[in-house]
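Need LUD domain-containing protein's 3D structure for a figure. Predict it.
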Amino acid sequence: MNAREAILGKARRALADVPDVEPVLDVPVVRPTPARDRTHEQVVDLFDERVADYRAVVERATGAAAADAVAGALAGRTPIAGSGPLRILVPPGFPPELVPSGIEVVTDGPDITVSDLDRCDGVLSTAAVGIAETGTIILDHGPGQGRRAATLVPDLHVCVIRADQVVAGVPEAVAGLDPVRPHTWISGPSATSDIELDRVEGVHGPRTLHVVIVGPAG
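Structure prediction for LUD domain-containing protein:
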């Protein structure tokens, strides 16, 4: 008896008292509608769902409610300094009407060191595009998005993305990006499962990602 026969023999003996089950052949397979075949409103809904799957906080807002959503994302957080207002990094070009009152605004720029970033309680940013199928946000570091380090060092990233910036899939997203610009692709908060498959967040980026989707879907 070779090794294959020995293994199959053990499997047969282990299944000897398991009754046979007739296969069910007529059950229809329901496949989800591909994102590219959905309405834009459905695409934005899918983006919302997929971003949340990554354990990010997702909030929908329209009009003036967007400012309240951004303020709510910061509410209740304890400053790194232990007291005083939150120190929030705000990149040049971020919509000023969305910057909450009662915080210490740190304006990002080349004079802001990594140590300065590490002392910030969070960062606000806009985005270039969102991908519904993968729940991914892409930054091209244009106005309102800051440098790569700006959204990688602080522990909280509040990202504001317009509903009309959400596309169905990766091909549509890539087609709309400037290939000469740097791109950062974000799928949920920073996380790793390298150590005994235990998920640990915040190892090499923000521990918390809060996404505010602004505007109607279509």
